[in-house]
Amino acid sequence: MNHLTERLTHHLVTRLATSGDDRGDVPGWVLVTVMTAGLVTTLWIVADDQLREIFSSALGRVTGP
After folding, report:
1. Which DSSP string corresponds to the chain?
2. What's the pLDDT tens digit per position in 33-50?
3. Cα(65)–Cα(60) distance, rounded to whole angstroms?
4. For residue 6, what are the CA distances in angstroms to 3, 29, 36, 40, 44?
5. Taking Cα atoms as reference points, which of 34, 41, 4, 1 lies closest to residue 16?
6. Which whole-number Å values give the CA distances from 52 to 21, 24, 45, 57, 58, in the listed order?
7. How far apart are CA 49 and CA 46, in angstroms?
8. CB within 10 Å: which end of the chain, N or C, has fewer?
9. How many angstroms separate the CA atoms of 50 and 44, rounded?
10. Interacting residues of 16 by C-beta distance below 8 A, sequence separation 6+
11. Rounded to whole angstroms, how far apart are CA atoms 48 and 6?
């Protein structure tokens, strides 16, 4: 993960851990959403060329030569 994502995740986890009031499971869903977005972003950065190739190949098969 990049530095900004790590800082935001750390801040969010720290904030949720020190929160005194109980708001149900909303903070858990927020954490899941943030972590999923970070994972998707990381995978996209790492596999950008491969994803473009797969997408182009799939479109080529659907539209024909």
Report:
1. --HHHHHHHHHHHHHHHH--S--TTHHHHHHHHHHHHHHHHHHHHHTHHHHHHHHHHHHHHHH--
2. 999 999 999 999 999 999
3. 6
4. 5, 18, 13, 14, 17
5. 34
6. 45, 40, 12, 8, 10
7. 8
8. C
9. 9
10. 27, 30, 31
11. 21
Is this structure's pTM higher than 0.70? no
CA 20 to chain centre: 27
Instruction: Please give the Cα distance from 13 to 5 (Å, whole number).
Output: 12
How many residues make up the chain in this entry?
65
Q: Which residue has the higher pLDDT, 60 or 25?
A: 60
* pLDDT score at 49: 93
